[in-house]
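Margin note from the TA: students keep mixing up input and output lines. Inputs are the sequences; the output is the structure of the whole complex. Example:
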Amino acid sequence: MTTPQSSPLRSDTSRGPRSSTPQSSPLPGAAENTGAAPGAKPYAAYLLGLADDAMVYAQRLGEWMTNAPQIEEDMALGNIALDLLGQARGLYPYVGSIDGTGRGEDDYAMQRDEREWHNVHLVEQERGDFADEMARLLWFSAYQVELHTALTSSTDDVVAGVSGKALKEVRYHLDHASLWVVRLGDGTEESSRRMQAALERVLPYLAELFDDDEASVLAAGLGAGVLPSTLHQGVVDRVTRVVEQATLTLPDGSRWRSRGGRAGIHSRPMGYLLAEMQHIARSYPGATW
Amino acid sequence: MTVVAAESAVAQAISRIPDPEVPVISIADLGILRAVDVDEQAHTVVVTITPTYSGCPAMEAIASRIVFESARQGYAADVHTQLSPAWTTDWMSDEGRAALQRFGIAPPGPVPTGESHGPVAVTLSRHVVACPHCGSTDTSEIAHFGSTACKALRRCNACLEPFDEFKAI
Protein backbone atom coordinates (compact mmCIF):
# COMPACT_ATOMS: atom_id res chain seq x y z
CA MET A 1 0.00 0.00 0.00
CA THR A 2 2.97 2.35 -0.28
CA THR A 3 2.88 5.24 -2.72
CA PRO A 4 4.03 4.07 -6.13
CA GLN A 5 7.56 5.22 -6.80
CA SER A 6 9.20 5.73 -10.13
CA SER A 7 12.09 8.10 -9.63
CA PRO A 8 14.46 8.05 -12.54
CA LEU A 9 17.37 8.16 -10.13
CA ARG A 10 16.51 6.40 -6.92
CA SER A 11 19.12 4.24 -5.31
CA ASP A 12 16.67 2.70 -2.87
CA THR A 13 13.03 1.93 -3.50
CA SER A 14 11.92 1.18 0.03
CA ARG A 15 11.11 4.68 1.24
CA GLY A 16 8.17 6.91 0.47
CA PRO A 17 7.34 10.45 1.51
CA ARG A 18 6.71 10.75 5.25
CA SER A 19 6.71 7.00 5.41
CA SER A 20 5.87 5.53 8.76
CA THR A 21 8.97 3.37 8.45
CA PRO A 22 11.66 4.93 10.64
CA GLN A 23 14.59 6.32 8.69
CA SER A 24 18.00 5.04 9.56
CA SER A 25 19.98 8.02 10.84
CA PRO A 26 23.64 7.87 9.92
CA LEU A 27 25.93 10.47 11.41
CA PRO A 28 25.33 13.86 9.87
CA GLY A 29 27.86 14.80 7.27
CA ALA A 30 28.29 11.18 6.18
CA ALA A 31 29.83 10.75 2.75
CA GLU A 32 27.50 12.16 0.14
CA ASN A 33 26.46 10.36 -2.97
CA THR A 34 27.75 6.99 -1.82
CA GLY A 35 26.51 4.27 -4.08
CA ALA A 36 23.94 6.55 -5.74
CA ALA A 37 23.29 6.56 -9.46
CA PRO A 38 25.15 8.98 -11.74
CA GLY A 39 23.29 12.30 -11.77
CA ALA A 40 21.89 11.61 -8.31
CA LYS A 41 23.83 14.45 -6.73
CA PRO A 42 22.47 17.27 -8.95
CA TYR A 43 18.99 15.75 -8.83
CA ALA A 44 19.14 15.64 -5.04
CA ALA A 45 20.31 19.27 -5.13
CA TYR A 46 17.28 20.19 -7.22
CA LEU A 47 14.90 18.54 -4.76
CA LEU A 48 16.70 20.20 -1.84
CA GLY A 49 16.17 23.55 -3.56
CA LEU A 50 12.41 22.91 -3.47
CA ALA A 51 12.42 21.59 0.09
CA ASP A 52 14.80 24.20 1.53
CA ASP A 53 12.81 27.14 0.09
CA ALA A 54 9.76 25.78 1.92
CA MET A 55 11.63 24.94 5.14
CA VAL A 56 13.44 28.27 5.50
CA TYR A 57 10.36 30.30 4.62
CA ALA A 58 8.35 28.30 7.16
CA GLN A 59 10.89 29.32 9.79
CA ARG A 60 10.68 32.99 8.82
CA LEU A 61 6.87 32.98 8.77
CA GLY A 62 6.81 31.33 12.17
CA GLU A 63 8.48 34.44 13.59
CA TRP A 64 5.22 36.31 13.06
CA MET A 65 3.49 34.31 15.77
CA THR A 66 2.71 36.94 18.45
CA ASN A 67 4.19 39.65 16.21
CA ALA A 68 1.52 40.06 13.51
CA PRO A 69 -0.78 43.12 13.47
CA GLN A 70 -3.75 41.03 14.67
CA ILE A 71 -4.22 37.62 16.24
CA GLU A 72 -5.99 36.25 13.16
CA GLU A 73 -2.85 37.05 11.20
CA ASP A 74 -0.66 35.21 13.74
CA MET A 75 -2.77 32.17 12.96
CA ALA A 76 -2.82 32.75 9.21
CA LEU A 77 0.95 33.03 8.89
CA GLY A 78 1.43 30.13 11.29
CA ASN A 79 -0.89 28.00 9.16
CA ILE A 80 0.94 28.96 5.97
CA ALA A 81 4.25 28.08 7.67
CA LEU A 82 2.81 24.70 8.65
CA ASP A 83 1.81 23.94 5.05
CA LEU A 84 5.33 24.81 3.88
CA LEU A 85 6.90 22.70 6.63
CA GLY A 86 4.76 19.78 5.50
CA GLN A 87 5.87 20.23 1.90
CA ALA A 88 9.52 20.13 3.00
CA ARG A 89 8.90 17.03 5.14
CA GLY A 90 7.43 15.29 2.10
CA LEU A 91 10.73 15.68 0.27
CA TYR A 92 13.58 15.35 2.80
CA PRO A 93 13.47 11.57 3.48
CA TYR A 94 13.10 11.04 -0.26
CA VAL A 95 16.24 13.07 -0.93
CA GLY A 96 18.01 10.87 1.59
CA SER A 97 17.11 7.85 -0.49
CA ILE A 98 18.42 9.48 -3.67
CA ASP A 99 21.73 10.94 -2.50
CA GLY A 100 22.67 7.63 -0.90
CA THR A 101 23.06 9.00 2.63
CA GLY A 102 19.77 7.65 3.97
CA ARG A 103 19.32 10.84 6.00
CA GLY A 104 15.90 11.61 7.48
CA GLU A 105 13.97 14.87 7.76
CA ASP A 106 15.59 15.95 11.03
CA ASP A 107 19.08 15.37 9.63
CA TYR A 108 18.35 17.72 6.72
CA ALA A 109 16.56 20.37 8.77
CA MET A 110 18.69 20.39 11.91
CA GLN A 111 22.15 19.06 11.07
CA ARG A 112 23.20 20.90 7.93
CA ASP A 113 25.49 23.93 7.91
CA GLU A 114 24.83 27.05 5.87
CA ARG A 115 26.81 25.97 2.80
CA GLU A 116 24.72 22.81 2.47
CA TRP A 117 21.40 24.68 2.09
CA HIS A 118 20.00 25.23 -1.41
CA ASN A 119 17.28 27.83 -0.81
CA VAL A 120 17.13 31.19 -2.58
CA HIS A 121 18.03 34.38 -0.70
CA LEU A 122 14.44 35.64 -0.87
CA VAL A 123 13.17 33.30 1.83
CA GLU A 124 16.06 33.82 4.27
CA GLN A 125 15.79 37.63 4.46
CA GLU A 126 14.75 39.15 7.78
CA ARG A 127 11.04 39.68 7.97
CA GLY A 128 10.87 43.50 7.88
CA ASP A 129 7.44 45.07 8.40
CA PHE A 130 4.11 43.46 7.56
CA ALA A 131 4.04 45.00 4.07
CA ASP A 132 7.47 43.47 3.39
CA GLU A 133 6.11 40.07 4.33
CA MET A 134 3.04 40.44 2.13
CA ALA A 135 5.21 41.50 -0.82
CA ARG A 136 7.44 38.46 -0.31
CA LEU A 137 4.46 36.11 0.20
CA LEU A 138 2.76 37.47 -2.92
CA TRP A 139 5.79 36.75 -5.10
CA PHE A 140 6.75 33.48 -3.45
CA SER A 141 3.24 32.00 -3.47
CA ALA A 142 2.70 33.10 -7.10
CA TYR A 143 5.98 31.33 -7.90
CA GLN A 144 4.89 28.23 -5.98
CA VAL A 145 1.54 28.11 -7.78
CA GLU A 146 3.31 28.08 -11.15
CA LEU A 147 5.97 25.66 -9.89
CA HIS A 148 3.60 23.09 -8.42
CA THR A 149 1.21 23.35 -11.37
CA ALA A 150 4.11 22.30 -13.59
CA LEU A 151 5.41 19.61 -11.20
CA THR A 152 2.07 17.81 -10.85
CA SER A 153 2.99 16.20 -14.18
CA SER A 154 6.51 15.28 -13.04
CA THR A 155 7.77 11.85 -14.12
CA ASP A 156 8.83 11.36 -10.49
CA ASP A 157 5.77 10.10 -8.61
CA VAL A 158 6.99 11.44 -5.26
CA VAL A 159 7.47 14.94 -6.66
CA ALA A 160 4.10 14.80 -8.44
CA GLY A 161 2.43 13.65 -5.22
CA VAL A 162 3.98 16.38 -3.05
CA SER A 163 3.15 19.01 -5.68
CA GLY A 164 -0.44 17.88 -6.18
CA LYS A 165 -0.95 18.32 -2.47
CA ALA A 166 1.01 21.58 -2.26
CA LEU A 167 -0.83 23.20 -5.17
CA LYS A 168 -4.10 23.32 -3.25
CA GLU A 169 -2.33 24.97 -0.34
CA VAL A 170 -0.24 27.55 -2.18
CA ARG A 171 -3.26 28.78 -4.14
CA TYR A 172 -4.80 29.72 -0.81
CA HIS A 173 -1.55 31.40 0.30
CA LEU A 174 -1.58 33.47 -2.89
CA ASP A 175 -5.19 34.40 -2.26
CA HIS A 176 -4.29 35.52 1.25
CA ALA A 177 -1.31 37.63 0.16
CA SER A 178 -3.36 39.14 -2.68
CA LEU A 179 -6.10 40.29 -0.33
CA TRP A 180 -3.60 42.03 1.93
CA VAL A 181 -1.65 43.68 -0.88
CA VAL A 182 -4.90 45.09 -2.29
CA ARG A 183 -6.11 46.16 1.14
CA LEU A 184 -2.86 47.92 1.99
CA GLY A 185 -2.17 49.29 -1.49
CA ASP A 186 -5.67 50.62 -1.98
CA GLY A 187 -5.96 51.66 1.66
CA THR A 188 -4.71 54.79 3.39
CA GLU A 189 -1.95 57.07 2.16
CA GLU A 190 0.41 55.55 4.74
CA SER A 191 -0.43 51.90 3.99
CA SER A 192 -0.17 52.51 0.25
CA ARG A 193 3.24 54.19 0.60
CA ARG A 194 4.59 51.36 2.72
CA MET A 195 3.20 48.61 0.46
CA GLN A 196 4.80 50.30 -2.56
CA ALA A 197 8.11 50.59 -0.71
CA ALA A 198 7.91 46.88 0.15
CA LEU A 199 7.40 45.93 -3.49
CA GLU A 200 10.59 47.83 -4.27
CA ARG A 201 12.62 46.27 -1.44
CA VAL A 202 11.76 42.70 -2.45
CA LEU A 203 12.76 43.24 -6.08
CA PRO A 204 16.49 42.30 -5.93
CA TYR A 205 15.65 38.83 -4.61
CA LEU A 206 13.24 37.72 -7.35
CA ALA A 207 15.51 36.96 -10.32
CA GLU A 208 17.19 34.14 -8.42
CA LEU A 209 13.93 32.16 -8.39
CA PHE A 210 14.06 31.86 -12.16
CA ASP A 211 17.73 30.95 -12.74
CA ASP A 212 18.32 27.73 -14.69
CA ASP A 213 21.20 26.19 -12.75
CA GLU A 214 22.84 22.84 -13.50
CA ALA A 215 20.56 20.93 -11.12
CA SER A 216 17.31 22.26 -12.58
CA VAL A 217 18.49 21.68 -16.15
CA LEU A 218 19.21 18.06 -15.26
CA ALA A 219 15.90 17.60 -13.42
CA ALA A 220 13.95 19.18 -16.28
CA GLY A 221 15.80 16.96 -18.75
CA LEU A 222 14.56 13.91 -16.85
CA GLY A 223 11.01 15.20 -17.00
CA ALA A 224 11.04 15.20 -13.20
CA GLY A 225 11.64 18.94 -12.68
CA VAL A 226 10.83 22.16 -14.48
CA LEU A 227 13.14 24.85 -15.87
CA PRO A 228 12.70 27.83 -13.52
CA SER A 229 12.98 30.33 -16.39
CA THR A 230 9.80 28.92 -17.93
CA LEU A 231 7.82 29.90 -14.82
CA HIS A 232 8.80 33.56 -14.93
CA GLN A 233 6.10 35.02 -17.20
CA GLY A 234 3.25 33.24 -15.44
CA VAL A 235 4.43 34.50 -12.07
CA VAL A 236 4.83 38.09 -13.30
CA ASP A 237 1.32 37.97 -14.80
CA ARG A 238 -0.18 36.82 -11.51
CA VAL A 239 1.61 39.47 -9.47
CA THR A 240 0.84 42.21 -11.99
CA ARG A 241 -2.91 41.58 -11.75
CA VAL A 242 -2.79 42.01 -7.99
CA VAL A 243 -0.51 45.05 -8.01
CA GLU A 244 -2.74 46.82 -10.53
CA GLN A 245 -5.83 46.16 -8.48
CA ALA A 246 -3.97 47.48 -5.44
CA THR A 247 -3.44 50.75 -7.37
CA LEU A 248 0.31 50.27 -6.95
CA THR A 249 3.12 50.22 -9.48
CA LEU A 250 5.20 47.16 -10.22
CA PRO A 251 8.77 48.49 -10.03
CA ASP A 252 10.90 47.55 -13.00
CA GLY A 253 14.44 46.29 -12.84
CA SER A 254 16.68 46.33 -9.79
CA ARG A 255 20.22 47.69 -9.99
CA TRP A 256 21.51 44.57 -8.27
CA ARG A 257 20.25 41.05 -7.74
CA SER A 258 20.89 38.16 -5.35
CA ARG A 259 22.55 34.97 -6.56
CA GLY A 260 24.19 31.84 -5.22
CA GLY A 261 21.56 30.41 -2.88
CA ARG A 262 21.02 27.25 -4.92
CA ALA A 263 24.80 26.61 -4.71
CA GLY A 264 24.93 27.14 -0.94
CA ILE A 265 26.20 30.73 -0.94
CA HIS A 266 23.91 32.67 1.39
CA SER A 267 23.39 36.18 2.72
CA ARG A 268 24.08 37.42 6.24
CA PRO A 269 20.67 36.61 7.81
CA MET A 270 20.92 32.89 6.95
CA GLY A 271 23.46 32.01 9.64
CA TYR A 272 21.36 33.67 12.34
CA LEU A 273 18.24 31.88 11.11
CA LEU A 274 19.97 28.49 11.25
CA ALA A 275 21.45 29.22 14.67
CA GLU A 276 17.99 29.84 16.07
CA MET A 277 16.28 27.00 14.21
CA GLN A 278 18.92 24.35 14.96
CA HIS A 279 19.96 25.39 18.45
CA ILE A 280 17.99 22.82 20.46
CA ALA A 281 18.65 19.91 18.11
CA ARG A 282 22.39 20.62 18.12
CA SER A 283 22.65 21.26 21.86
CA TYR A 284 20.96 17.96 22.68
CA PRO A 285 21.90 15.58 19.85
CA GLY A 286 19.51 12.69 19.43
CA ALA A 287 17.09 14.03 22.07
CA THR A 288 13.52 12.80 21.81
CA TRP A 289 10.36 13.53 23.76
CA MET B 1 -13.96 6.26 -1.66
CA THR B 2 -12.58 4.56 1.41
CA VAL B 3 -11.91 0.86 1.01
CA VAL B 4 -12.67 -0.91 4.25
CA ALA B 5 -13.26 -4.58 4.87
CA ALA B 6 -16.56 -3.86 6.63
CA GLU B 7 -17.02 -7.35 8.01
CA SER B 8 -13.82 -7.13 10.02
CA ALA B 9 -14.02 -5.96 13.64
CA VAL B 10 -10.54 -4.43 13.51
CA ALA B 11 -11.40 -2.51 10.34
CA GLN B 12 -14.55 -1.18 11.95
CA ALA B 13 -12.67 -0.15 15.08
CA ILE B 14 -10.14 1.73 12.94
CA SER B 15 -12.80 3.45 10.85
CA ARG B 16 -14.53 4.73 14.01
CA ILE B 17 -11.41 6.53 15.31
CA PRO B 18 -12.27 10.23 15.74
CA ASP B 19 -10.21 12.96 14.16
CA PRO B 20 -8.09 14.43 17.01
CA GLU B 21 -8.70 18.05 15.95
CA VAL B 22 -12.40 17.70 15.10
CA PRO B 23 -13.51 14.78 17.30
CA VAL B 24 -17.13 14.81 16.12
CA ILE B 25 -16.07 13.23 12.83
CA SER B 26 -14.36 9.87 12.30
CA ILE B 27 -11.28 9.44 10.13
CA ALA B 28 -13.39 7.35 7.74
CA ASP B 29 -16.09 10.02 7.42
CA LEU B 30 -13.42 12.69 6.97
CA GLY B 31 -12.01 10.72 4.02
CA ILE B 32 -8.45 10.49 5.33
CA LEU B 33 -8.66 6.72 5.91
CA ARG B 34 -7.88 5.39 2.45
CA ALA B 35 -7.47 1.64 2.87
CA VAL B 36 -7.51 -1.10 5.49
CA ASP B 37 -6.06 -4.45 4.46
CA VAL B 38 -6.63 -7.11 7.10
CA ASP B 39 -4.66 -10.35 7.14
CA GLU B 40 -6.76 -12.62 9.36
CA GLN B 41 -4.16 -15.40 9.26
CA ALA B 42 -1.21 -13.35 10.43
CA HIS B 43 -3.32 -11.00 12.59
CA THR B 44 -1.81 -7.97 10.90
CA VAL B 45 -3.45 -4.96 9.33
CA VAL B 46 -2.00 -2.52 6.80
CA VAL B 47 -3.65 0.89 7.03
CA THR B 48 -3.24 3.73 4.54
CA ILE B 49 -4.06 7.30 5.55
CA THR B 50 -3.67 10.62 3.73
CA PRO B 51 -3.20 14.08 5.32
CA THR B 52 -5.76 16.85 4.89
CA TYR B 53 -2.91 19.39 4.58
CA SER B 54 0.80 18.69 4.05
CA GLY B 55 1.74 19.91 7.51
CA CYS B 56 -1.24 18.52 9.39
CA PRO B 57 0.12 17.89 12.91
CA ALA B 58 -2.62 15.36 13.69
CA MET B 59 -1.21 12.65 11.42
CA GLU B 60 1.13 11.19 14.02
CA ALA B 61 -1.63 11.12 16.64
CA ILE B 62 -3.93 9.36 14.18
CA ALA B 63 -1.27 6.81 13.27
CA SER B 64 -0.55 5.96 16.90
CA ARG B 65 -4.28 5.67 17.63
CA ILE B 66 -4.62 3.21 14.75
CA VAL B 67 -1.79 1.12 16.18
CA PHE B 68 -3.44 1.27 19.62
CA GLU B 69 -6.96 0.32 18.44
CA SER B 70 -5.57 -2.51 16.31
CA ALA B 71 -3.59 -3.88 19.24
CA ARG B 72 -6.77 -3.90 21.34
CA GLN B 73 -8.31 -6.16 18.70
CA GLY B 74 -5.21 -8.34 18.70
CA TYR B 75 -3.71 -7.08 15.46
CA ALA B 76 -0.32 -5.56 14.65
CA ALA B 77 -0.83 -2.47 12.49
CA ASP B 78 1.46 -1.03 9.84
CA VAL B 79 0.40 2.54 9.00
CA HIS B 80 1.36 4.12 5.68
CA THR B 81 0.96 7.74 4.69
CA GLN B 82 -0.02 8.38 1.10
CA LEU B 83 0.02 11.82 -0.55
CA SER B 84 -1.41 11.01 -3.94
CA PRO B 85 -4.18 11.37 -4.94
CA ALA B 86 -4.38 14.50 -2.78
CA TRP B 87 -7.17 14.60 -0.21
CA THR B 88 -10.24 16.60 -1.12
CA THR B 89 -13.22 17.64 1.00
CA ASP B 90 -15.36 15.92 -1.66
CA TRP B 91 -14.35 12.64 0.04
CA MET B 92 -16.15 13.64 3.22
CA SER B 93 -19.23 11.50 3.81
CA ASP B 94 -22.76 12.87 4.21
CA GLU B 95 -22.79 11.57 7.80
CA GLY B 96 -19.54 13.46 8.41
CA ARG B 97 -20.98 16.68 6.99
CA ALA B 98 -24.08 16.36 9.16
CA ALA B 99 -21.91 15.78 12.24
CA LEU B 100 -19.88 18.92 11.53
CA GLN B 101 -23.08 20.94 11.10
CA ARG B 102 -24.43 19.71 14.45
CA PHE B 103 -21.12 20.62 16.08
CA GLY B 104 -21.35 24.20 14.79
CA ILE B 105 -18.86 23.94 11.93
CA ALA B 106 -20.15 24.81 8.45
CA PRO B 107 -19.38 21.78 6.25
CA PRO B 108 -17.38 22.33 3.06
CA GLY B 109 -19.20 23.19 -0.15
CA PRO B 110 -18.27 21.65 -3.49
CA VAL B 111 -14.63 22.14 -4.46
CA PRO B 112 -14.33 25.06 -6.90
CA THR B 113 -13.16 23.89 -10.30
CA GLY B 114 -9.94 25.47 -11.51
CA GLU B 115 -9.10 28.84 -10.02
CA SER B 116 -10.35 32.37 -10.29
CA HIS B 117 -8.47 34.61 -12.68
CA GLY B 118 -10.83 37.51 -12.10
CA PRO B 119 -10.16 40.58 -10.03
CA VAL B 120 -8.90 39.75 -6.57
CA ALA B 121 -11.82 41.30 -4.75
CA VAL B 122 -14.18 38.75 -6.28
CA THR B 123 -12.62 36.12 -4.04
CA LEU B 124 -13.98 37.97 -1.01
CA SER B 125 -17.54 37.01 -1.85
CA ARG B 126 -16.78 33.99 -3.99
CA HIS B 127 -18.91 31.46 -2.19
CA VAL B 128 -22.00 31.33 -0.01
CA VAL B 129 -21.70 29.69 3.42
CA ALA B 130 -24.76 29.02 5.56
CA CYS B 131 -24.58 29.64 9.31
CA PRO B 132 -24.56 26.26 11.13
CA HIS B 133 -26.55 27.81 14.00
CA CYS B 134 -29.49 29.61 12.33
CA GLY B 135 -29.13 28.60 8.69
CA SER B 136 -28.88 32.15 7.33
CA THR B 137 -26.70 32.56 4.25
CA ASP B 138 -25.96 36.15 5.23
CA THR B 139 -22.46 35.42 6.60
CA SER B 140 -19.07 37.02 6.15
CA GLU B 141 -15.47 35.95 6.56
CA ILE B 142 -13.61 37.20 9.63
CA ALA B 143 -10.32 35.45 8.97
CA HIS B 144 -8.90 33.45 6.07
CA PHE B 145 -7.44 30.91 8.50
CA GLY B 146 -9.07 29.46 11.60
CA SER B 147 -7.95 27.37 14.54
CA THR B 148 -6.63 24.61 12.25
CA ALA B 149 -5.31 24.58 8.69
CA CYS B 150 -8.57 23.10 7.40
CA LYS B 151 -10.86 25.84 8.70
CA ALA B 152 -11.65 29.55 8.15
CA LEU B 153 -13.43 31.83 10.61
CA ARG B 154 -16.78 33.42 9.72
CA ARG B 155 -19.53 35.44 11.36
CA CYS B 156 -23.29 35.22 10.85
CA ASN B 157 -24.82 38.63 10.15
CA ALA B 158 -28.28 37.37 11.13
CA CYS B 159 -27.71 35.70 14.53
CA LEU B 160 -24.30 37.39 15.07
CA GLU B 161 -22.62 34.12 16.12
CA PRO B 162 -19.07 33.43 14.95
CA PHE B 163 -18.42 29.97 13.51
CA ASP B 164 -15.77 27.84 11.80
CA GLU B 165 -16.06 26.95 8.13
CA PHE B 166 -14.46 23.74 6.86
CA LYS B 167 -12.68 24.99 3.73
CA ALA B 168 -13.40 23.21 0.45
CA ILE B 169 -10.19 22.00 -1.16
